[in-house]
Amino acid sequence: MIKLQEYDEGEVVLAAGELGRGFCILEDGVLEVIRDGQVLSEINMVGSIFGELSEILGLKRDAVIQAKSKAKVRHVEESIADIISKNPKVALKLIKTLGRRLYRMNRIAAKEVSSKETHIETVHDIQILVVDDKPNIIKQISDICARSNWVVKSAADEASALRACEGSGFAAILISMALPNEAPVDLRRKLKTNHNVLNTPVVGMIVKGDDSAQKKALDAGFTDCIEKPFDTNRTEAVLYKVMNLDSSARYFSFVEDYLLFKVPAELSNFVITDIKDNMDARIKNTINEGILKLIIDVSSLEEVEEDAIEVVGEFAEKIEDMKLPMRGAIIATGEDAEMWNNLDGCEEWGVCEDIDSAKEYLAKDPDSDGDE
Q1: Residues with Cβ within 8 Å of residue 221, at least 6 apart in sequence
Q2: C or N: which end of the chain has fewer Cβ atoms within 10 Å?
Q3: What is the pTM of this model?
Q4: Residue 205 — pLDDT band, cuts 50, 70, 90?
Q5: Fold for domain 248-368?
């Protein structure tokens, strides 16, 4: 029995915990494979077969497949053994499908191993492809990416973008939704047939307020969108998210035997939320590294305002509440420098003028602090 079923965005196509029978074929739209709340992969090629492993292995499904956009799926509910006995060519198609899936998973596994080995430095080995025929857009994105030491390569049209992906992969691909006709959607579809960028997130660049372009991009399976004119912090945040990178690396870094937290000069609500959301993970990561020294650099702040005090105070309080044997120093200059010691958790920290004096302070025996 074969039936065609339509799904709205967010609807479950195949539920976890069920023992499957037969398989499914994607007729239209984009689906997501989700396990434990994490998106493992997308199914976006018309004609893709999925859902067959449950019957082949005799195991219940351990992942949910749901619609990322409106989708049409053909459910083949006859047993695979019966189908193959009637049409042996189906077996060959299933073998090819499983082979491609295994190839894809091996590449993902290799990337994950590489990421773990290179640890925090992985954010500096990122290549991003920007597809746009406007030089100013290329420069603006390049300037934003340079802040994280990411390398930007550009392509003016579909043909040059496809050529760029023939010999290398990218951590993310940005495509202007202002390219002529259906070029952005067509390019995104063609990129998903290239093994070098098969699992690369594709982000649409739209003009702020252009809801139709955003809807078009998301319906076509784009991972996310960024708006022109570019807000640096928001653009960075989207790129960190789609590339599954730790966005707190923009503010925290391990240097020698200490954690350096550089408080950015521009503390918008967006940046503050980004820092706070990553505090717990950063503290745990620091403990895991065996690092017990912390330097917070607030010297880039032109004025000490409530937002900066709140961010630094919350970070210090978290460390104090966890009763960590961590020593801290704050790099601050000007008349307000000493006031940082008034914050809860910072009372015993050293207030220093620069990085060298902060390192010198932390290198001293704690019992000798204040003794001259």
Answers
A1: 30, 42, 44, 68, 69, 188, 189, 192, 202
A2: C
A3: 0.53
A4: very high
A5: Transcription Regulator spoIIAA (3.30.750)
